[in-house]
Amino acid sequence: MTATETRDAAPAAGATPRKPSVRKRLVPYWLLLPGILWLLVFFAAPLVYQASTSVQTGSLEEGFTVTWHVQTYWDALTEYAPQFLRSVLYAATATVLCLLLGYPLAYLIAFRAGRWRNLLMILVIAPFFTSFLIRTLAWKTILADGGPVVGALNSLHILDVTSGLGITEGQRVLATPLAVVCGLTYNFLPFMILPLYSSLERIDGRLHEAARDLYARPSTVFRKVTFPLSMPGVVAGTLLTFIPAAGDYINAELLGSTDQKMIGNVIQSQFLRVLDYPTAAALSFLLMAAILAMVTVYIRKAGTEDLV
Question: What is the sign, positive or negative, of the torsion defined by CA atoms of 140, 146, 149, 154?
Fold first, then answer.
């Protein structure tokens, strides 16, 4: 191409560049449309319906009408405050236990597993191939009064200690807080391990080598290098564990008694047994608001950059 042709082909100086067509500018919005419709139909619409139900009065026989009876929220909160606190306590305990159990395993898979890494990851994910209900029922068999677990704990006099602490009753584990927390910990442990592994696996090994070259002890390397860099996984794992555990009702229903009922059990009972839909909807919104407030405070303390 000659200099004259190049000059003719180049845009004139000061010319305004052509804007993309309207169709091209709308492409990102068209791509977002299926997700937006899904959220509107299966999240926003049920949320609005539940909000409307929570301020209704009436009965199943006479029908429910919207009367803006917001007193339902206060009545539900005062009546079921123990179940709210118990849900937070059980979920927080299970989250801490998942972190204490999951972090060493995630660390092992990320840095020490070698050729066994894929097998260990399969073993972590394997429980997801079984129904949540069946896994919980299995714990009911494991912790049965005449089972080997309770027998071993009795022979070691561990149940005497736990009974004194109030987390078991006598010489049994089922229908106690310990059984419910064990079920929550087991069922939600993979939700802790997977984010932790993902975060640890991305850490550059040369950072560990540099720390050791500077004569840092293994404990110092973990405290100054590994754990701070794995905080995104810690934050994600704790959120993925605590949020569903706080609203869970299957573990408390199958492994606990009436004294271990969580707020999820109350909501389930109000919806399906008592048929008090306004109270059930109000409890659902109160639980959502409480979890949202706790998560917001936690993220602010941890730093929002940890979620990246």
Answer: positive
C-alpha–C-alpha distance, residues 189 and 183, integer Å:
10
- On whether the CB atoms of residues 252 and 177 are closer than 8 A, the answer is no
Closest listed residue to residue 91, CA positions, set 194, 201, 187, 213? 187
**Residue type for 152, please?**
A
Distances 259 to 177, 256, 265, 271 between C-alpha atoms, Å: 9, 7, 11, 20
30 exposed, middle or buried (CB, 10 Å; 0-12, 13-18, 19+)? exposed
Are the beta carbons of 160 and 67 closer than 8 angstroms?
no
300 residue type, one letter: R
Residue 291 CB partners (closer than 8 Å, separation 6+): 242, 243, 246, 247
Cα gap 135→190, rounded to integer Å: 13
Considering only CA atoms, which of 223, 136, 117 is closest in space to residue 179?
136
Amino acid found at 168: T
- β partners of residue 59: 63
What is the DSSP secondary-structure string of 280-295?
HHHHHHHHHHHHHHHH
What does the buried/exposed string (b/e) look like for 207-229 if buried means 16 or more CB atoms within 10 Å of the residue's CB?
ebeebeeeebeeeebbeebbeee
Residue with tokens 């720390």: 211
Percent of the chain with pLDDT over 70: 92
| pLDDT tens digits along 195-242 | 999 999 999 888 888 988 888 898 999 999 999 999 999 999 999 999
Single pTM value for the model: 0.86
